[in-house]
Amino acid sequence: MIKTVLITGASHGIGKEAARLFASRHWNVFLNCKTSAKDMIAFSEDLSRTYKTACTPLIYDISDDAQAEDMFAEIHAISKGPDVLVNNAGISYIGLLDAMNIDDWNRVINTNLTSLFSCCKRAIPHMLHEKSGKIINISSVWGNVGASCEVAYSASKGGVNAFTKALAKELAPSNIQVNAIACGVIDTRMNRCFSEDERRELMEEIPAGRFGSPQETAQLIYDLATGHDYLTGQIISLDGGWC
């Protein structure tokens, strides 16, 4: 039986590589992004042609609960719902807390944390009906230890970790697993703000001696999505031994 996955933040980086991997294994794939509609539509069409599977672009800002509601209405017009939900959408903010305004704070929290509520709430009923499902949240090592000049981001990812642990306990009796991946430095657009010197210094701090790749992260997402039914409520660090 063909299964369905919904991946948020699928226009680049980890989300894009996860979408490619699921499509290559002939899943039905729903790909969400807020902007980049033209690129997302073209990418979805390319995946469908290449792997002969259904890939549907969903252009919604899921930091807004009303738009998340509309997105799931579109999903339910096509499918009963996702068997696997990958909550990958996220943004960062680098700067001193006392220089941050409330709009920036709310934008980070709503995108990185509130979107989990909006998507999980609407994905869970189908999983309950099927008595199975996987929810995979993309977190960060900063959610475990915090980062100077990234207070809002760290707080949002700490919230993701607590959300993951609590929801896992709530859904375990229904055979639905909820886990998070706490990423270290993954070589994505989010981390390309660093200069060459800063990138070199970061690599020297990481025991593995390099950044992780989006493809490696996508593989871990897929592994969690396709097995490990007794593994739930875990925050799995993918950081090359860094934190």
Automatic annotation (TrEMBL):
The keyword Transferase belongs to this UniProt entry's keyword annotation: no
Keywords: Lipid metabolism, Steroid metabolism
InterPro entries named in the record: NAD(P)-bd_dom_sf, Sc_DH/Rdtase_CS, SDR, SDR_fam
Short name of one Pfam family: adh_short
Source domain of life: Bacteria
Keyword Transport: no
Entry coiled-coil feature ranges: none
Family label: Belongs to the short-chain dehydrogenases/reductases (SDR) family.
Protein name, per record: SDR family NAD(P)-dependent oxidoreductase
